[in-house]
Design brief:
Length: 187
């Protein structure tokens, strides 16, 4: 679908130079002299190549609509991840690097969104956060709870994160899957 360059938003998938690009940043600029334009930073979905592109607001770009389907994570085998479609029960195999850092937060049975373009998987979206247990952390020091300092801790999935001083081993915490940051203590 063609859209005006002034309608480009972060997260949109555009077709440009015979490739699919996801928009990471967009800045709409109206200089004092000359026409307005949209300055975008995009990343290729296939190979991760970065592109800075400037579109005049009178230009039109091809916006791609992706189909998001629910898939259940089954298991990991080497560098491959296996998922099952929740409606058709068909299985797909995807490389770990398609998910990147967030792959460490996949759990057996987790429901994820797989974005498809022309029946080909393009990307995988995990839930925004997961609850994991701290298996290793420095002991709590009395009086340290008032400061906003952080200490390293090891999660049950093997990922190291920074947590507040009052968190100890055995505590269940909410962790952001996109960057591995501590969100809060799990209730």
């Amino acid at each position: 679908m063609k859209i005006s360059a002034s309608d480009i938003r972060i997260g949109d998938v555009l077709e440009c130079n015979d490739k699919l690009w996801v928009v990471l940043k967009v800045q709409h600029v109206k200089p004092g002299k000359g026409g307005a334009f949209a300055q975008t930073e995009m990343k290729a979905l296939k190979d991760g190549q970065r592109l800075n592109e400037r579109f005049r607001t009178v230009d039109t770009v091809e916006k791609v609509f992706l189909e998001e389907l629910d898939f259940q994570f089954l298991y990991k085998d080497g560098n491959d991840l296996f998922f099952m479609n929740q409606s058709t029960f068909n299985q797909i195999q995807l490389p770990v690097d398609m998910i990147g850092y967030s792959a460490a937060f996949l759990e057996d049975g987790m429901i994820v969104k797989v974005c498809m373009y022309e029946n080909n998987p393009i990307s995988v979206k995990l839930p925004q956060s997961v609850i994991l247990e701290i298996v290793e952390a420095d002991p709590v020091v009395k009086g340290q709870t008032a400061t906003s300092s952080y200490k390293p801790a090891l999660l049950s999935n093997g990922v190291k994160i920074m947590v507040p001083q009052h968190i100890e081993a055995g505590t269940r915490v909410v962790v952001n899957t996109s960057d591995g940051s501590y969100v809060e203590r799990a209730k």
